[in-house]
């Protein structure tokens, strides 16, 4: 018995010393990819750009902006993502590490070509991080966006993720994007960014990628429209609404917190479905340039009424535009019909874009002023 | 490592138990009636023992007495005033011829010594002389009288340096067994506190006392303790550690199987819980048997402070105990094997700090651990004034200098120091030792296999702990095997009032 134990120990050490440490990779052998960008290249190929963090330039004790860029961008062309990746690896002395990738960015050219073909790698590759956010660059290439050094964060990959939260939306992860893209009843709405000047970027709304046509870019919504659209889909957590509230053109702004959206499908008399959209929200008045006093009951009701009306008009305009100009269902009406009347959906879904544009939609917006703010009437009254 | 934790006390290879309590002697030799022959015997026995004093006395010209004692162990004042003066000046009392035994008469009439004993065995007399008794041999008697006039220098009762507490008594045991048993008696004032005396060690003849409270103690444990103490066959027993190693179930476990304490209140608490204590002459450390894993993580003053603070403290201790074993291994496993598990910003900071370091992570951790252990060990032996200073300052300065020179990366210093300091949170020093020792095999396993290595190591340790059964008590009880009533007490220390509700004292209960 003892001999077996001794033999076992010896064998154990032999095994570990001859085959051991095969999984051990030091952090300085890895190139951490923080963002990936995809652009269209000639001949049907794609150009992949990777934003790679350079750790030695991140001096944790000093201010980051004083050093310069803490990342570098490497690009390569290839037939698909991993093909380009192989070419890219030849340019780097460290092996690419995808698991910390924060953002996947599609350039406009790529979006116009259609990104559907390239979706697979992000899911299938075991080393790929599926919790990256997705974005589209409007009028620009992903490579240029990746080269921008943001003001606060070390990498633009991270900044893109955080800009979405700071404007009040919930960050759009690749996981959601995939499930929206595979959903026959809706079209994914991807946040869009625009490169301003030489060194800045801004969130300019959302891009509609048509999932019946290989996820080709159908159009853009501007910022305000995109917030309203997100509100309807349930991806927005706060929004500020401004409108004229009194006869003299005075404005009031309310910051809405608890946003709710209820979409109901009802059948009209002819048996066709119609949509009822009910949006509601409550919040506090943050700016008041009107003659009204939000701390008084009647005035407050007028403010609520005016704000709700103007929001409703904007939403109706948005739905109108999307239905007739773009003809893609970004709001998920098809999905709701599918849930409520699955039998009907089976016939409707074949030509959904056409049916969608003829769908009657009614909108109801109820806003509630919960808190008039720290003061009562507007300051201008005292001047 | 004996993973099965088999106890030494398996029935097949036990030596037979002796009947007597006393240590093995050569067969006893009686003293003779002739004083000169006795004197020669003892001179022979104590040849070259320069501190044994032989004093011949002639009492009133007729009776010859031989007094033997060890110089330095007897109280010369008492000896002179209570023994020699009466014998020499006053002499034997009236009616001498009718008295049978000089020794007996001395004992009853003349000597105002409290403890006297009679013996006719040479070796027993020699043993008692060496313990500070004074032997009186009379011509024509074959019995000697031994009077206990011992007094020697011992350390006074001081505050315990190794087991400091915020609250509670500050007396700690000293090297003299009698002082220690006195301290115990003063805490548990009941005849049910039994102190059984044994002698262990062939050459040292060390007195050992097994203490327990009759009625509270677990009988199987007591029986086992008695058996094992009787079976000790060592040449010298210098410290309770010898006894501990001789009677513990398995020597090959990093975890101690009995607690040792310098504090009488800790020992008393153990006795009240039904445990057995072993006190050894010559050392202040008492052994408390049996011990569970959770006892090792308790401080003596856990029961003195209020329960909320104590419970919180206990949770912190458990967390730090786990931390001290696992932290360096987790650091290696996460940064080298699974960087995807670390949040991105942290990973980039760590890799930024690791850029300059030339060694792989595992080697770095080993180097720092080694240095830390070396510094800690050095700090113990240095004189009191500079010891702690050197170890702390040394660790910081060396760590800082190494980081700036680019030899070691900063996270390693943090990790190793944090793990080292968290092992000091464990109140009993000897329980922090196995956790520190286990850190190294875990490091090796992690360096080879990553998180899988940590899992392997932890499973091995757990299996070992589960199989460890010192004196029949499972080491991890009451968690494993689960005892639903007691398991709550591991995690929360309930207030004493609750114990009152559980055991109401009824009228007529004996003390």
Describe this structure in words.
Chain A: One of its GO terms (biological process) is spore germination. Chain A folds into 2 domains: 23-221, no CATH class; 222-383, GMP Synthetase, Chain A, domain 3. Helices cover 33% and strands 29% of the residues of chain A. Chain A contains 12 helices and 14 strands. Chain A has helices at 2-19, 81-89, 108-113, 120-124, 142-147, 156-166, 174-182, 223-233, 297-326, 333-340, 342-348, 352-357, and strands at residues 30-40, 46-53, 71-78, 95-97, 103-106, 133-138, 189-196, 200-210, 216-221, 239-244, 251-256, 260-267, 273-288, 361-371. In chain A, the strands form 2 sheets. In chain A, strands 1, 2, 3, 4, 5, 6, 7, 8 and 9 form a 9-stranded mixed β-sheet that branches. In chain A, strands 10, 11, 12, 13 and 14 form a 5-stranded mixed β-sheet that branches. In chain A, strand 8 and strand 9 form a beta hairpin. Mean pLDDT of chain A is 86; it is low at 63-67. With 511 residues, chain B is of the alpha+beta class. Chain B folds into 3 domains: 1-26 and 154-291, no CATH class; 35-148, no CATH class; 307-472, no CATH class. In chain B, the strands form 2 sheets. A 5-stranded antiparallel β-sheet of chain B has the order 1-2-4-5-3, sandwiched between helices. In chain B, strands 6-7-9-10-8 form a 5-stranded antiparallel β-sheet, with helices on both faces. At the A-B interface, strand 1 of A face helix 10, helix 11 and helix 15 of B.
SS strand fraction of chain B: 5-15%
Element-by-element helix/strand order of chain B: HEEHHEHEEHEEHHEHEEHHHHHHHHHH
Task: Report the strand count of chain B.
Answer: 10
Largest sheet of chain B: 5 strands, antiparallel
User: Proportion of β residues of chain A?
Assistant: 25-35%
How big is the Rg of chain B?
A: 30 Å
- How many strands in all of chain A? 14
Biggest sheet, spatial arrangement of strands of chain B: 1-2-4-5-3
**How many domains of chain A?**
2
Number of domains of chain B: 3
Number of H- or I-type helical stretches of chain A: 12
Task: Please state the CA-atom Rg of chain A, rounded to the nearest Å.
Answer: 26 Å
Distance between the termini of chain A: 99 Å
Our measurement of the CA-to-CA distance between the termini of chain B, rounded to an integer number of angstroms, reads: 46 Å
Q: Could you give a short account of the major beta sheet of chain A?
A: 9 strands, mixed
Mean pLDDT of chain A: 86
- Largest inter-chain contact set: A-B, 26 and 23 residues
Order of helices and strands of chain A: HEEEHEEHHEHHHEEEHEEEEHHHHE
How confident overall, as mean pLDDT of chain B?
81
Individual helix count of chain B: 18
Main location (chain A): membrane
Keywords (chain A): Germination, Lipoprotein, Membrane, Palmitate, Signal
GO cellular component, one term (chain A): membrane
Membrane topology (chain A): Lipid-anchor
């Amino acid at each position: 018995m003892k001999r077996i134990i001794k033999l076992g120990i010896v064998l154990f050490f032999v095994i570990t010393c001859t085959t051991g440490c095969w999984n051990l990779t030091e952090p300085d052998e890895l190139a951490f990819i923080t963002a990936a960008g995809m652009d269209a290249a000639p001949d049907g190929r794609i150009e992949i750009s990777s934003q790679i963090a350079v750790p030695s330039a991140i001096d944790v004790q000093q201010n980051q902006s004083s050093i310069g860029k803490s990342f570098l961008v490497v690009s390569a062309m290839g037939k698909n993502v991993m093909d380009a990746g192989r070419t890219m690896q030849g340019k780097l002395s460290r092996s690419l590490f995808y698991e910390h990738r924060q953002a996947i960015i599609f350039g406009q050219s790529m979006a116009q070509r259609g990104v559907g073909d390239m979706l697979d790698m992000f899911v299938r590759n075991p080393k790929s991080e599926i919790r990256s956010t997705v974005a589209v660059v409007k009028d620009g290439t992903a490579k240029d966006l990746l080269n921008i050094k943001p003001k606060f964060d070390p990498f633009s990959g991270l900044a893109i993720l955080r800009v979405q939260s700071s404007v009040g939306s919930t960050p759009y992860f690749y996981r959601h994007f995939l499930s929206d893209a595979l959903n026959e009843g809706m079209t994914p709405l991807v946040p869009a960014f625009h490169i301003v000047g030489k060194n800045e970027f801004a969130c300019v709304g959302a891009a509609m990628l048509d999932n019946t046509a290989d996820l080709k870019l159908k159009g853009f919504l501007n910022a305000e429209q995109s917030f309203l659209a997100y509100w309807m889909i349930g991806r927005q957590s706060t929004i500020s609404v401004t409108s004229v509230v009194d006869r003299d053109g005075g404005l009031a702004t309310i910051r809405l917190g608890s946003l709710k959206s209820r979409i109901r499908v009802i059948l009209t008399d002819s048996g066709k479905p119609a949509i009822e959209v009910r949006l509601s929200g409550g919040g506090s008045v943050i700016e008041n340039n009107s003659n009204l006093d939000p701390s008084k009951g009647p005035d407050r009701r007028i403010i609520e009424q005016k704000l709700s009306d103007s929001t409703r008009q904007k939403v109706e305009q948005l739905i109108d535009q999307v239905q007739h100009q773009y003809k893609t269902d970004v709001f998920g009406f098809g999905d709701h019909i599918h849930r409520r009347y699955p039998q009907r959906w089976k016939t409707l879904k074949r030509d959904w874009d056409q049916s969608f544009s003829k769908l009657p939609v009614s909108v109801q917006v109820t806003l509630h002023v919960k808190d008039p703010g720290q003061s009562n009437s507007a300051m201008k009254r005292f001047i | 490592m004996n993973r099965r934790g088999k106890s030494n006390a398996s029935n097949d290879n036990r030596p037979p138990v002796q009947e007597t309590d006393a240590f093995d002697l050569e067969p006893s030799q009686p003293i003779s009636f002739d004083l000169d022959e006795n004197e020669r015997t003892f001179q022979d026995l104590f040849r070259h023992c320069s501190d044994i004093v032989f004093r011949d006395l002639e009492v009133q010209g007729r009776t010859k007495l031989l007094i033997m004692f060890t110089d330095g162990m007897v109280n010369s004042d008492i000896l002179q005033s209570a023994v020699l003066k009466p014998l020499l000046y006053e002499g034997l009392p009236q009616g001498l011829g009718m008295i049978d035994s000089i020794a007996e008469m001395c004992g009853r009439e003349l000597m105002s010594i409290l403890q006297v004993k009679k013996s006719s065995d040479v070796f027993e007399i020699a043993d008692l002389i060496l313990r500070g008794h004074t032997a009186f041999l009379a011509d024509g008697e074959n019995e000697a009288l031994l009077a206990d006039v011992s007094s020697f220098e011992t350390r006074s009762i001081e505050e315990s340096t190794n087991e400091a507490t915020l609250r509670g008594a500050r007396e700690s045991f000293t090297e003299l067994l009698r002082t220690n048993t006195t301290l115990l008696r003063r805490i548990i004032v009941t005849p049910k506190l039994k102190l059984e005396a044994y002698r262990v060690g062939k050459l040292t003849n060390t007195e050992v006392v097994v203490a327990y409270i009759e009625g509270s103690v677990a009988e199987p444990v007591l029986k086992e303790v008695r058996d094992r103490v009787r079976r000790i066959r060592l040449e010298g027993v210098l410290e309770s550690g010898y006894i501990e190693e001789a009677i513990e179930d398995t020597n090959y476990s990093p975890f101690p199987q009995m607690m040792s304490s310098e504090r009488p209140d800790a020992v008393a608490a153990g006795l009240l819980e039904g445990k057995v204590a072993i006190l050894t002459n010559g050392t202040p450390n008492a052994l408390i048997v049996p011990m569970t894993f959770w006892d090792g993580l308790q401080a003596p003053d856990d029961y003195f402070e209020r329960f909320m603070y104590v419970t919180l403290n206990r949770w912190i201790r458990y967390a730090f105990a786990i931390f001290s074993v696992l932290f360096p291994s987790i650091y290696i496993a996460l940064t080298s094997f699974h960087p995807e598990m670390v949040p991105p910003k942290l990973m980039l900071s760590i890799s930024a700090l690791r850029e300059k370091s030339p060694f792989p992570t595992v080697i770095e951790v080993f180097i720092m651990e080694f240095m830390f252990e070396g510094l800690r060990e050095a700090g113990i032996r240095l004189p009191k004034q500079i010891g702690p200073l050197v170890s702390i300052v040394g660790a910081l300065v060396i760590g800082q200098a190494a980081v700036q020179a680019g030899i070691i990366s900063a996270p390693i210093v943090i990790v190793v120091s944090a793990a080292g300091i968290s092992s000091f949170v464990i109140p009993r020093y000897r329980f922090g030792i196995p956790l520190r020792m286990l850190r190294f095999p875990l490091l090796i396993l992690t360096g080879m296999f990553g998180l899988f290595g940590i899992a392997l190591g932890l499973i091995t340790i757990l299996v070992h702990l589960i199989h460890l059964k010192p004196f029949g008590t499972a080491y991890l009880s009451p968690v494993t095997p689960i005892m639903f009533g007691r398991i709550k007490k591991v995690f929360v220390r309930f207030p004493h009032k609750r114990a009152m509700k559980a055991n109401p004292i009824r009228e007529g209960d004996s003390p």
